[in-house]
């Protein structure tokens, strides 16, 4: 009987029963050829029969790296030297959990890594071995509808949806292991989290100064004291450091690049990333997506090379504070920073599951003028994505790898958050960022009030001559529009302040000079090569 080898060329391996049937048959055929030490040559594209592994590792290697091209006669794995390759039946049907949906998930993740490294050769990352072990393992004897990995992923999803605490999740896992002694399941939330991080899309914990002066990151990563206020990085007990180093505050940073790559590596979302180029409104008077707006079109004119590839990503940023404890009598403000992917259609891009959380800024106080300290990792990565891009697998094409670039177009926020992000204070006599130094305001009974709104009406509008507003006729024209050059010149006059809230350093209140207007700082967004269209 000839051997069917057509499965070795299948690309979408995770969703193909033919691939899994052929692979199981290959492993059964190779079993008698394991050497005395329990190893056998591996025919994946990375090992090329030059390295040997245990049989169970061959399955994950071949799935991850695919079958080598020129190995037509399986002389190391049970095929007689005189046999000819044929195209008949594959081996035994089935295989463990052949319809398990986690196969597709791992296929997308592993193909993303393998194709992303296509220029320099296949990936040599071994982080998926534990995932394959959990995927091959039955949750419980005689239960074939769930793999151990699939059940754990669904359990964690329920934890997130229903806001279970880590302690309650630990108790549930202990109960399941106690009630079902033969169940193949982790025993704690820590173990589950450790396994899930191997699927990618994790986060980085960055220590920060207790006074929010600086991050212990990059050049400061090895320091034990803040470079600005010289306060200790670690919590102290009775003036001494405890046995275990515990930082005062931790910033969680979720890298943007891997999340954008995943959108292109997944067959269910890759085509949606082109929607903005094909779904434009045909009616010039209708705007159903930012792609129909003037700002988007103006950006394309300024950066034609970026606009030339529809797969390049357009982003918007939103930030605001909230009380995570739900107890409004307790003052605590935590600030998430979220990105919106505007390549997606409007009925998807604003859904919660499609928003990209990038930063989780800890409380208890609002970052205020020190917002730029926390935005530093994000801005550095956005600059990297704009200038150099990222090798990305395009699941819509066979062997499709392209260099993805990304740009931040604007920010979306309320007025107080805008002050923290832009640097223009939303308080005082010049609070309006549009009118700038021409803001009409006056003091009324201890409050700053803003008037002159009739200036925006047409010059012949009858409300301009109506005395019921403030007893005066409005003859002033609308406020002037400030150009980019004007704003840059204003920012040039702004003095650089000391960051942080230490009472002897950044926490000292500084009176702004008249030439600084309402600027408190030059925002970190001015470091982006593209700038921002609007905020």
Structure keywords:
28% helix, seven-stranded mixed beta sheet, two-stranded antiparallel sheet, 15 helices, 535 residues, alpha+beta
Structure, described:
Helices cover 28% and strands 13% of the residues. Strand 7 and strand 8 (240-241) form a beta hairpin. The chain is globular. The chain has 535 residues and is α+β, with helices and mostly antiparallel strands. The strands form six sheets. The protein has a seven-stranded mixed β-sheet, covered by helices on one side. A two-stranded antiparallel sheet has the order 1-2. Strands 3-4 form a two-stranded antiparallel sheet.
Q: Concise description?
A:
By secondary structure, the chain is an alpha+beta fold.
Mean pLDDT: 83
Percentage of helical residues? 25-40%
Low-confidence stretches: 83-98, 115-125
Beta-strand proportion: 5-15%
User: What gap, in angstroms, lies between the N and C termini?
Assistant: 69 Å
The biggest sheet amounts to: 7 strands, mixed
Biggest sheet: strand arrangement: 6-5-9-12-11-10-15
DSSP E strands, number: 17
Structural class, from helix and strand content? Answer: alpha+beta
Number of helices: 15
Shape: globular
Specify Rg, calculated over alpha carbons.
30 Å
